[in-house]
Amino acid sequence: MGTLTIMVVVALFLAAIVLGGYNKNFLERVKGSTVWDWMTTVDHKKIGIMYFMSGIVFFLIGGLEAILIRLQLMVPANDLFVGDIYNQILTMHGTTMIFLAAMPLLFGLMNVIVPLQIGARDVAFPFLNSLGFWFFTAGGIILNLSWFFGGAPDAGWTSYVSLALNEYSPGPGVDYYVLGLQISGIGSLISGINFLATIINMRTPGMTLLRMPLFTWTTFVASALLLFAMPALTVGLLLLMFDRLFGANFFDYTMGGSSVLWEHLFWIFGHPEVYIVILPAFGILSEIISTFSKKRLFGYTSMVFATVLIGFLGFMVWVHHMFTVGLGPVSNSIFAVATMAIGVPTGIKVFNWLFTMWGGEIRFTTAMLWAVGFIPTFVVGGMTGVMLAVPPADFQYHDSYFVVAHFHYVLVGGTVFGIFAAAFYWWPKMFGKMLHEGLGKFQFWTFFIGFHLTFFPQHFLGLFGMPRRVFTYQANVGLESINMLSTIGVIGMTLGTLAFGINIYRSLFIDKTKAPADPWNGRTLEWAISSPPPEYNFAQLPLVRGYDALWVEKEAGKKELTPAEPLGSIHMPSSSYLPLVMAIGVFISGMGFIARGDYSMGIFGLIILGIAMFMRSFEVDHGYHIEPEEIEKDKGVDA
Amino acid sequence: MTEEQQNSSPQQEESHKPDSTMKHIVSFAAMIVLTVAAFYIVMEDVVEPNMILPLLLFFASIQVVLQLFTFMHLNQKGTAYYTIFIFTGVIIAVVSAVGIILM
Amino acid sequence: MASDAHTNTNHASNHLETATLEGKNKVLGFWLFLAAEVVLFACLFGTYLALKSQTMSGPTSMELFDLNLVIVATALLLTSSLTSVFAMSAMNQRKLKLMQFWLGVTVFLGLAFLILEIYEFVHYIHLGHTFMSSAFGSAFYALVGTHGAHVTFGIIWISSLMIQAQKRGINTDTAPKLFVSSLYWHFIDVVWVFIFSLVYLLGKVG
Q1: Which of B5, B14, B101 sits opposite C50 (nearest CB)?
Q2: Which ranges carry the Heme-copper oxidase subunit III family profile domain (chain C) (predicted)?
Q3: CB distance A517 to A528 below 8 Å
Q4: A51: how many CB neighbours lie within 10 A of its CB?
């Protein structure tokens, strides 16, 4: 109770300072500031940019952890990071890259681009969109605070029990994992629902389902996967929290619990999660290859079908992560067949990309380079995936570096390459500036070569018997030179990432030239409006008359889209500070539960959340309107 | 905008009431019957023990369908997306739960 | 207004809750949320059914469960589902008082259910069946407790919406909220159907 009292007093004190007559101008100044504007925004483009930027920050943190891992493994019997600290770096690398880098980077792109591609003025739930972002941020911060307060989680990104139980992971590390992921997971679920509702309800007239660009389609399917996969993680983390904090026995073998239960819950979530991060990359590829080949995407309908099929099959294969658990030949066989079946729709996609390029007017811009680099890299990852899907063979590969090489080929060669491609392709639409093509090509070549140098040898490390997650290896067993090679490759990826950083800095702070509305001769709706778009996106909602909506108009010799409505006053949602308050509430609550012992802080945070929810429910928010005169003025400026 | 719709709607709603209330009461009665049946087969030992689980699942499923399509209005127009997503959810839920229980 | 272009195209249903684009979004978004909840409860059911025989020499489900109590609880919740439907009919006829009456009955029945459940839990704890006593205990309280938490949240939610409806009346802003809360209440009832079938009744069979 002591902590609670102190917290309440401090909160009242702060409230008195902020609200009281201390300095009335202060409040006004805060409300007028840019920071406040961004923190309370419900504009999908600003939220998208915040997602993207925080994704980059976490990508750098995760990348640093990767460098440390490779430094430790550079030479045999190294003692740079031994035991616990290595486990922490390894766990945080995996967790950060999947949950805090790949997902927000993709969410950022989805947020900015999808509403533009379907001709919408905003997402279906602007408020929830902001809430999802702040929950994600709160969770990400909680996870990374673990480094400073009590040590990071160290049970692997899969956090298998019994290792993750109190008995074997006594510190607060795994608690940070459980609560941080729970909070950011709720944020992801909210975002998923938002994207689904946006794509279903907010499409502009004429934008039928089979006219939607592939990136929108893959976002749709990935969001559906989020919707159905996240609850399994929620339950898994909830049960693990009960076990660790409240003495429950779900996973404790001595009390009748089951450690296989965690594996099931985790992988029922975990496998769809892999598709959540790869499907949007497929969508990005389809957009870019079609644009820079100056051709309609080959086999559009089969692409859509393949996307949906991959999404559905993604839920039927989770046991292939558990072949060696001993579930028996029947379940292993069923899930092996289902896993191999996924190769079929994925193959459809690869061939469609190749056929799109076939006979096209190909322009090798940086975005296109990333896309072209994606295809062979991802095919290697897919091929080793089929190898791993054969249960008897998997008993050999399991938990070896072969698996590490496999999933880095799909997650870096797939997702990260896709994200870089998208960054170069949509950067002008997001920021109104261009990224430098020369620097981009330098980044591509260094990163591409470095990547293959790091991860291709790891296949052989695995085949030669090096287990994953182990912090060192012996000399003279044939692993030294391959490990050294693998570490040297990191230099290339580091150089590439640095070049990307310089490129971002240059485009945002040095380069003064504005990006044109349509720098790539684009085919979809987002290229029909200015870069960056005005806050209402489309002055008049466009009428879509075919697949590749903008290209249809260009073919018809038109400069602009056909409007679907007369110019009129536009309704906009008003910004709100409540999502931030709710996120602060869950943040305090999460930290309170991690601190253990006294749960008053945890409950205090939940009370903040509850109060903010009531305030939101009772608030009458009519938004505001942008009048036609202002829109005309904007148009004048652009022209 | 809000005012307009407020004024225009009352007369539209008249057709809504009587038959739908009847339908709700009938499906409520059906749910009660199904519930009683479920309790009856367990408490009174009237069926083979290995038939109890299938019967319980059968009764429960009918109740779910009744809830969804009468109480939650999935029988109306414009609910295709709701239906698709709920039933996809049910399929994934069944696969996951059966996976957890059996393995 | 921005939303009108969308609204007019789909006016086949004369329902207040989906009269505006915002309302339509809300109802759709809530159905999506319910689809996620289906998977969430499936995982909890799977966990319970996988662990239910692990009683660790504590009382078994056969010894614990009292079906008479469950019959009463089921009757309460099923009836509240019906009264919630009546409230929605009243809402679409714009009869505020009638709606408030049925919502009040719904909340009352929900509260009665909740009290019964708390009584049941206290009773079990006295018999040595606790959250920490065994994997069976943990799984039982996690599943039934999560359902109970949903009921609690539903009661608070519907009550606060009753206050809003009293203050602002039934309009295109409050109607979607009320409708969505009633969907939630029916969903809770659906989950309970599976709890009494698969937890209590199946628990009595063994």
Answers
A1: B101
A2: 28-204
A3: yes
A4: 26
Pair (B10, B54) in one structural domain: yes
Chain B neighbors of C93, CB-CB under 8 A? 10, 13-14, 16-17
Q: Tens of pLDDT along C107-130? A: 999 999 999 999 999 999 999 999
What confidence score (pLDDT) does residue A14 get? 74
| pLDDT score for B47 | 87
Annotated domain spans of chain C: 4-205
Contact at CB, C5 and A236, closer than 8 angstroms: no
Q: CA–CA separation, A228 vs B96, rounded Å?
A: 11
Chain C contact for B22, CB < 8 A? no
**Is some CB atom of chain A closer than 8 A to the CB atom of B87?**
no
Q: Do C189 and B67 touch (CB under 8 A)?
A: yes
Q: Write the ipTM.
A: 0.93
Contact A256 C55 (CB under 8 A): yes
| Set of chain B residues whose Cβ sits within 8 Å of the Cβ of A261 | 100
* Closest of C73, A467, A39 to residue C81, by C-alpha: C73
Closest by Cα among A227, A175, A15 to A589:
A175
Residues B65 and B86 in one domain: no
Chain C neighbors of B44, CB-CB under 8 A? none
Mutate to test the interface with C, among B19, B39, B55 (most CBs of C within 10 A): B39
Based on the domain organization, do B9 and B58 belong to the same domain? yes
A154's CB contacts (< 8 A; 6+ apart) are A84, A87, A88, A90, A91, A169, A171, A173, A174
Among C36, C139, C142, select the one facing A227 at the smallest CB separation.
C36
Q: Nearest CA of chain A to the CA of C139: how many Å?
A: 7
CATH assignment of C4-205, among 3.40.630.10, 3.40.630.30, 3.30.70.330, 1.20.120.80: 1.20.120.80
Q: Chains contacting A with at least 3 CB pairs below 8 Å?
A: B, C
Is B35 in the same domain as B50?
yes
Closest CA to A296 of A99, A81, A554: A554
Task: Report the predicted TM-score, pTM, of the whole model to 2 decimal places.
Answer: 0.93
Distance from CA of B96 to the nearest CA of C (A): 7
* B94 in the same domain as B81: yes
Query: Cα C38 vs. chain centroid, distance in angstroms?
Result: 12
Domain that holds residue B91: 77-103
Instruction: Output the six-digit token pair for C36.
Output: 């996620």
pLDDT digits (tens, 9 = 90+) for C38-66: 999 999 999 999 999 998 888 998 889 98
Nearest by CB to residue B95, choosing from A265, A315, A328, is: A315
CATH of domain A33-576+621-638: 1.20.210.10
Segments making up each domain of chain A, as ranges: 33-576+621-638
Segment among A488-502, A505-519, B9-23 with least mean pLDDT: B9-23
HEC profile of A149-170: CCCCCCCCCCCCCCCCCCCCCC
Does C29 contact A250 at a Cβ distance shorter than 8 Å? Answer: no
Q: Quick one: angle between helices A2-19 and A600-618, nearest 10?
A: 40
Query: Mean pLDDT lowest for which of A346-350, A438-442, A444-448, C92-96?
Result: C92-96
Considering only alpha carbons, which residue of chain C is nearest residue B93?
Answer: C39
> Are C36 and A618 an interchain contact pair (Cβ–Cβ within 8 Å)?
no
Pick from A188, C196, A363, A552: which is nearest to B56 by CA? C196
Please list every residue in chain B whose beta carbon sits closer than 8 Å to the beta carbon of residue C12.
77-78
Asked if C34's CB is within 8 angstroms of B100's CB, the reply is: no
Q: Please state the domain count of chain B.
A: 2
Q: Is the bond preceding A130 in cis, omega lying within 30 degrees of 0? A: no
Q: For residues A262 and A253, is the Cβ–Cβ distance under 8 A?
A: no
**Distance between B29 CA and the closest CA of chain A, angstroms:** 33
The answer to whether C94 contacts B31, with C-beta atoms less than 8 Å apart, is no
